[in-house]
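Human: Cast an eye over this sequence-structure pair and say how the chain folds.
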Amino acid sequence: MYGIVDNLSEKNHAQKIAESVEGVKKVENNITIAIDSKITDKDIKQGVLRNLQNSKFHEEIGELGVDVTDGTVTLYGKINNAQQEIESINQAAQAMGVKSVISKLELNKEHKIDDVSLVNLVVQKLSRYDLSLPDLVITANNGTVTLSGYVNNLKEKELANEAAQSVNGVKKVINHIKIREKS
């Protein structure tokens, strides 16, 4: 793909649309993020900070540190779960002129949980939804949760992923869930 967009969020969105087209196996995203020569790193930082303040997690995680060099944003600070990190990265990517986002966000020490307890918390969270839990396998290793097994559709796969990401103590979710073939 080629073209010009204003920020990383738009570039990523175009790639997701292309990847969702039936029959597409691979997408080469050569879209350029064009920066108005008047936009400085300081302007980008202000835009990122403004977006982060409007984030749905702002009150939970407070202020994050932001550095910007040549349009590349680096985020610093403490988060409670993977969902907050993803939201922070997405908010930063939406600021005008952002070319890339590097996360140096760390899990709050108070939310570091042993792997067995983390699996139990994820199972509890998933049990709130209409998912076939016996068909899912949940494991954890140092805060990284891996989901595998089978669900009925893409919506259920995404729901399981989002639910696991929202559990405090989860640093990352690896989703190997497969969708059942309809017979």
